[in-house]
Amino acid sequence: MDTLLRLLSDGRFHSGEELGAALGVSRSAVWKYLRSFEGEYDIELFKVPGRGYRLAEPLSLLSYEDCSVVLARLRWELCLRETVDSTNAEALRLLRSDVVAPFVVLAERQTNGRGRRGRVWASPPAQNLYYSLALKIVNGSGGLSGLSLVVGLAVLRALRRAGVTGAGLKWPNDLYVGGKKIAGILLELTGDPADVCHVIIGIGINVNMISGGLDIGQPWTSVRAQTGVLADRSELANFVSESLHHYLAMHAREGFSSLRGEWEANNIWQGKRCTLSSGTQQVKGLMVGIDEQGALRLLVDGLGEQRFSGGELSLRLDHDS
Ligand code: ATP
Ligand code: BTN
């Protein structure tokens, strides 16, 4: 199945004979494979008598070779999967089966991609980036403050290298372009937060997704929608790895305070009126910025400046802002 998709991914015609020879099956078996695979991958396929088969659109599939070359330089291992429930869940399982961090899990698709607070992350096959980096933390989770914001900066740099202009950060860990979400970050901690533990840095980036029947529930965009060209997903994964390596090293060396100014300079709602929600409670105020730990600083109406942090918080821009 994977071989077939790779052969067709260039978007050109391939005869049934050629595909059958590559797979070692008959032409009618190729046709059967392709039928099942159209439904499974939600991919449009053209069949033209005398010419063969071609995909309606070329695909950029992940390349183990291209990604592992860069990761080897960073001394991170690579686990590349075709299908997983969630790359974060897969990273957790690998840690439990004693695979040694640091390692990156990449997948062509997720069947149960997760966002924050149990939300669903839409993860269609062969379109986007589903990336999880597992890291060992030796001195307790105290040194992790601001980590999700640092990851946001790393993803921002990778998007810019891929040609996306106008992207910015939404506290605590989303990336937007022109009011539309292009990427999200989900950090998960496992082990003893006071001692040795692991953090899984999960990153979802919309890369070549441009339309489709996905019910995402809020405006979204992708690298391709922004640049107008099909992006090389392995190259983007490499940009993410290199950029993460750079920012994580800086964070470990100097702490979050050294990156605070850069984060604020890319904050899409800096100086804007926002509403912060936590469960059923809401607080309205002006976003002043973040503090040296990455907590949100909000000038709350009638109460002055207050600071907020924690995984259950959700920030929205006020309509009059
Ligand atoms: P906040 O966490 O501040 O409330 P949010 O509404 O974006 O922000 P998250 O939990 O961060 O919520 O992200 C999950 C949400 O992202 C989903 O509920 C859905 O609306 C949206 N979403 C899911 N898949 C995608 C995707 N591939 N691209 C963009 N947005 C997505
Ligand atoms: C969010 O915005 O809520 C965070 C979305 C994080 C999605 C990524 S995709 C790779 C990794 N695996 C998951 O199941 N989730 C994260």
Strand content is 25-35%
Task: Just give the CATH class of the largest domain.
Answer: Alpha Beta
User: Overall 3D geometry?
Assistant: globular
* Quaternary class: single chain
How would you portray this structure in words?
By secondary structure, the protein is an alpha+beta fold. It contains 9 helices and 14 strands. It folds into 3 domains: 3-55, Arc Repressor Mutant, subunit A, CATH 1.10.10.10; 64-264, BirA Bifunctional Protein, domain 2 (2-Layer Sandwich); 269-317, SH3 type barrels, CATH 2.30.30. It has helices spanning 2-8, 16-23, 27-41, 64-74, 87-96, 147-161, 223-227, 233-254, 260-265, and strands spanning 45-48, 52-55, 77-84, 103-110, 129-137, 167-170, 174-177, 180-191, 197-205, 273-278, 281-290, 296-300, 304-308, 313-317. The strands form 3 sheets. It has a 7-stranded mixed β-sheet with strand order 3-4-5-9-8-7-6, with helices on both faces. Strand 1 and strand 2 (52-55) form a beta hairpin. Helix 2 (16-23) packs across helix 3 (27-41), helix 4 (64-74) runs parallel beside helix 8 (233-254) and helix 6 (147-161) runs antiparallel to helix 8 (233-254). The termini are far apart. The relative contact order is 0.11. The chain binds adenosine-5'-triphosphate and biotin. Biotin (BTN) binds at residues 86-88, 110, 113-116, 119, 121, 130-132, 174, 184-186, 202-204. Keywords: ATP-binding, Biotin, DNA-binding, Ligase, Nucleotide-binding, Repressor, Transcription, Transcription regulation. Residues 16-35 bind DNA. Its EC number is 6.3.4.15.
